[in-house]
Amino acid sequence: DVVMTQSPLSLPVTLGQPASFSCRSSRSLVSSDGNIYLNWFHQRPGQSPRRLIYKVSNRDSGVPDRFSGSGSDTDFTLKISRVEAEDVGIYYCMQGTHWPHTFGQGTKVEIK
Amino acid sequence: EVQLVQSGAEVKKPGATVKISCRVSGYTFTDHYMHWVQEAPGKGLEWMGVVDPEDGVTMYTEKFQGRVTITADTSTDTAYMEVRGLTSEDTAIYYCATPAFGAFYWGQGTPVTVSS
Q1: Could you give the angle at the alpha carbon of A47 between the alpha carbons of A46 and A50, nearest 5°?
Q2: Does the beta-carbon distance from B106 to A99 stay under 8 Å?
């Protein structure tokens, strides 16, 4: 199975400041169709997860443009340009290129 | 509007079986895979498996292979996830989720508590 490794596991952030999360896969996520099926999800306490980013860098509908995704092959990054209070929670990367799909351990974001 | 409505919370004894349902509306059930995800306390999200409602073909992660069965009933637009031989390690919230219309929709989650 593809192992997804996220860092850091915990990230205290200051409101209005940028934040960045890393996700690395144990093998290339480039699919046979040329796409990279790397997703980012956000989960607030007590809520279902919500997808923010699909195929590395595409924002889902309604996701603020302060969120951006980048990366290639095995190394991926989610950035928040200016953190807002509603951004607290856990961020997960998930690969959908290989079966079985796999999640990273998550990065917990808290406000300082 | 796409909706995934899951069955309610369950409390089971060790060794028992639980079957969770996920009824969909707002899209054609057979057009998209249905995924199941486990959220165990303090352990993050874990992808469990998937079913293609069109033909019933399934895929599971090794951890759940042989103990979990995912099915789809196209007559009621409902997906099911059954876990057998429950242990305390299965205490978790279970989610169904599907990629439809370019988005990724989730059920509200079904808490399962395994306790003697």
Answers
A1: 150
A2: no
